[in-house]
Design the sequence.
């Protein structure tokens, strides 16, 4: 029987992540991987509009302002929205590894409530890599990079190829993405061998 471990602790044989030589420079704004993405897309009216920058090593920082549309309880951010922000921030680490990866597992700690209008400062880094499996962690702080921790998460991302999206996405969006030269350029920036 094939028993899948759900642990987010890197297994024996996992290695330290390697920053790709062509990764964006520390401080560089990464931009959106897809303009309709709920997490980072500029053209997505309902989205978080996360602004993410490359950090040192295999790390990123990001910022997002909690809006009224992100509420769960009155005046407070919805936990799922906060989890999405952490997920998106860790997803951006693919820019530094130059691999496309999707979330397989995400475990979130909600440490304190986050009011509407809060600027949430996120940071994420890759802890270890084993084959296609990328183990990452992220933290979100209130009001500034040294502010109190509100949320944190560990995640396992799994490396995929562009074909993953072509095979699974709705054809109308996939065809639009494939005929958009900017989108194709982004896919290439993620992949070592497009
Ligand atoms: C034209 C368009 C261009 C687009 C260019 C844009 C590019 C930029 C996109 C970036 C996007 C980021 C956006 C934010 C991050 C999301 O939100 S991503 C969206 C949410 N995630 C998903 O939709 C993923 C859905 N799941 C799947 O598709 C499949 O389960 C997966 C994750 C691809 C894995 O399937 P698979 O490739 O068949 O892999 P599989 O052989 O089952 O497992 C491989 C290994 O991972 C382990 N594993 C797999 N799943 C799990 C799990 N859930 N828990 C624990 N272990 C697991 C397995 O045990 C196995 O381990 P080993 O045996 O090797 O030790």
Sequence:
């Amino acid at each position: 029987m094939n028993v899948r471990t759900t642990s987010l602790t890197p297994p024996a044989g996992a290695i330290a992540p390697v920053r790709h030589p062509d990764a964006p420079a520390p401080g560089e704004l990464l931009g959106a991987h897809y303009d309709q993405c709920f997490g980072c897309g500029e053209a997505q009216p309902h989205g978080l509009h996360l602004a993410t920058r490359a950090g040192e090593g295999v790390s990123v920082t990001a910022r997002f302002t909690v809006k009224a549309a992100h509420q769960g309880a009155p005046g407070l951010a919805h936990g799922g929205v906060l989890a999405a922000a952490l997920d998106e921030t860790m997803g951006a680490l693919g820019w530094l590894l130059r691999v496309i990866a999707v979330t397989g597992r995400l475990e979130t700690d909600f440490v304190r409530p986050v009011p509407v209008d809060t600027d949430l400062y996120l940071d994420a880094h890759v802890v270890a890599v084993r084959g296609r499996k990328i183990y990452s962690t992220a933290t979100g702080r209130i009001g500034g990079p040294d502010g109190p921790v509100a949320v944190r998460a560990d995640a396992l991302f799994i490396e995929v190829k562009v074909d993953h999206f072509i095979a699974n996405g709705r054809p109308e969006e996939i065809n639009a993405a494939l005929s958009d030269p900017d989108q194709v350029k982004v896919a290439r920036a993620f992949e070592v061998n497009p």
